[in-house]
Specification:
mainly alpha, about 65% helix, disordered C terminus
Length: about 80
């Protein structure tokens, strides 16, 4: 999963892409927790970053569900 996903970047993604990114982030979080439990984790800060990415994805999905933010498709000229 890409590091440093912002809410603005996530808002332009379609629902299927968000679900995919959420699944990838949850898998990464599982792997990081497993590494932490076995003492193999090198970057504890990554745990926090992945949890925040998951929260951002959930926030964007919830905004769409409540119709707080609409999805704007960029038109391609040419």
């Amino acid at each position: 999963m890409a590091k440093g996903l912002t809410a603005g970047e996530l808002r332009v993604e379609d629902q299927d892409t968000l679900v995919t990114k959420l699944k990838e982030a949850k898998e990464e979080l599982f792997n990081l927790r497993f590494q932490a439990a076995t003492g193999q984790l090198e970057s504890h800060g990554r745990l926090r970053a992945v949890r925040r990415e998951i929260a951002r994805i959930y926030t964007v999905m919830r905004e769409r569900e409540l119709k707080i933010v609409t999805v704007e498709k960029e038109s391609i000229d040419g």
